[in-house]
Design a protein that fits this description.
Blueprint (H helix, E strand, L loop, with lengths): L1 H12 L10 E4 L5 E6 L5 E9 L12 H7 L4 E2 L2 E2 H10 L3 E6 L3 E9 L3 H13 L5 H18 L3 H14 L12 H6 L2 H11 L5 E7 L3 H12 L20 E6 L4 E9 L8 H11 L7 H8 L7 E7 L4 E10 L3 H18 L3 H14 L7 H13 L6 H10 L3 H11 L6 E6 L7 E2 L4
Parallel strand pairs: 2-8, 9-13, 9-14
Antiparallel strand pairs: 1-2, 3-7, 3-8, 4-5, 6-7, 10-12, 10-13, 11-12
Helix pairs in contact: 2-8, 4-9, 10-13, 10-16, 11-12, 12-16
């Protein structure tokens, strides 16, 4: 069985990249909707399920509960303890993945056609009958606490968490989904059951399926797997008020090299200017060695090994972020150069040559995302959560090609805020005028 599964994975990895996929919308007899791409050449199915809300649905004072609960979904279900559940998964040559972000709890399932019924029954048990055994809770709790402690010593994590606290305040986005040492230590089994009820509900399900399954078979599978979940979960949190003041925040950390995370308010993916902003970011800081930031900060001045920027849209807030690291005696200069490039792009936009190069890369890279059943299933779910039309894949590159130089110049002047760009610097920088980090 393992050999068969390995051969299938090899075949999937070898599938040609493609962006022309035939997507069907399937509604189960019980009313659950999914998007399906049938692919019967290999007896294998990839299933992606997301529950909107994720760790943002932690109950007040219970930060980290959804994360801990998610980590326990494969630690025993029904009559199977953690070890028995793992053995059964392996015997079926099935793969389950459980992950959580602040916006969604994600479930990935991969299974052979011949084991589809048994695999779905096993996954159903994990979702409907998690055991939350005391020994499993303590084992996973220990892993989470170890992760929190590790993050407290990681300059990049410190910068990210400090920036989030500044930008989002008391909103769930403003704190780590892991929780704190104190909040995680205090979580009880009842808290985990509450987290399970808050998140796993039918009113927030998104499903993508790719592989050897028909619409009729998928409809029945959806009802068997998800039909008995509660109709509604906890209310979604409100949108975050993004409040990023200008300036620089310093977190003292003993290290020869400072890490800086910088950012400002961003742009939503459903904004008509999203693709112009995507082109702009490719040129400014998202293009690797071809970006302006890399050219000016690394190539010309040797201030860093790497600097980059990226658009960061989330369900409840949008930011535009970037990161750089440099020696303590050079980070101030790196920040000065980044601010200057931000201002230059805001004032002048980009060149025609940069526009064409960015569009060529963005459109050319898109088909490479469709390199197997699992990535396609993941894309289908993401499209649904963004409320994109079912034909989006076929029209997406046309939207990129339609971006003009004037579009990018206008968006650059409206989006980029060099005077309000905020830097969080973790290290012991020299010659940097900064304010201390906010205290918890």
């Amino acid at each position: 069985m393992r050999l068969i599964y390995a051969l299938i994975l090899t075949c999937l990895a070898a599938l040609p990249a493609r962006a022309e996929v035939d997507i069907q919308s399937v509604t189960s007899p019980g009313g659950i909707t999914a998007w399906l791409v049938e692919e019967h050449s290999i007896p294998f199915v990839a299933l992606e399920i997301r529950f909107r809300g994720g760790a943002s649905l932690d109950a007040p004072g219970k930060r980290g509960a959804v994360n801990l609960m998610t980590g326990l979904l494969e630690e025993g279900a029904g009559e199977m303890d953690a070890r028995a559940f793992s053995r059964e998964t392996e015997a079926l040559a099935t793969s389950f993945g459980f992950d959580v972000s602040d916006d969604a709890l994600s479930i990935s399932a991969r299974f052979l056609t011949e084991n589809r019924e048994a695999s779905i029954a096993l996954l159903r048990a994990a979702l409907m009958e998690p055991r939350f055994d005391a020994d499993a809770i303590e084992r996973v709790r220990g892993q989470v606490i170890a992760n929190i402690r590790s993050n407290q010593k990681d300059p990049n994590k410190i910068a990210s968490q400090t920036f989030d606290k500044i930008a989002f305040g008391d909103h769930p986005y403003g704190s780590s989904l892991n929780g704190t040492l104190q909040s995680v230590a205090a979580l009880t089994r009842d808290d985990l059951l509450e987290a399970h009820r808050n998140v796993l509900a039918r009113d927030r399900i998104y499903v993508g399926a790719v592989g050897d399954i028909t619409p009729e078979e998928l409809g029945q599978l959806l009802d068997d797997l998800l039909g008995d979940l509660p109709a509604e979960g906890a209310p979604m949190p409100p949108r975050a008020e993004v409040d990023i003041p200008p300036g620089t925040t310093l977190v003292d950390f003993a290290t020869p090299q400072s890490v800086a995370l910088f950012g400002q308010p961003g742009i939503a993916q459903d904004d008509p200017d999203w693709f112009a902003a995507t082109v702009l970011n490719r040129v400014l800081g998202g293009g690797g060695f071809e970006s302006r930031l890399m050219t000016e900060v690394r190539e010309k001045r040797g201030l860093t090994y790497g600097v980059y920027s990226y658009l960061a849209p989330r369900d409840l807030a949008e930011t535009y972020l970037g990161s750089v690291s440099s020696a303590n005696d050079r980070i101030a200069e790196a920040i000065e150069v980044i601010r200057a490039e931000w201002a230059k792009a805001a004032e002048e936009g980009i060149t025609q040559e940069e526009l064409e190069a960015a569009k060529t890369y963005i459109t050319g890279a898109y088909p490479l995302k469709f390199d197997g059943n699992a990535p396609i299933a993941n894309i289908l779910v993401g499209m649904q959560m963004l409320d994109l039309p079912i034909d989006y894949i076929a029209t997406r590159n046309d939207k990129v090609e339609a971006v003009t130089l004037e579009d990018v110049k206008r968006v650059a002047s409206e989006l980029l805020e060099p005077e309000n760009l905020h830097f969080v610097v973790v290290g012991q920088p020299e010659g940097l005028d900064a304010t201390p980090a906010p205290q918890e």
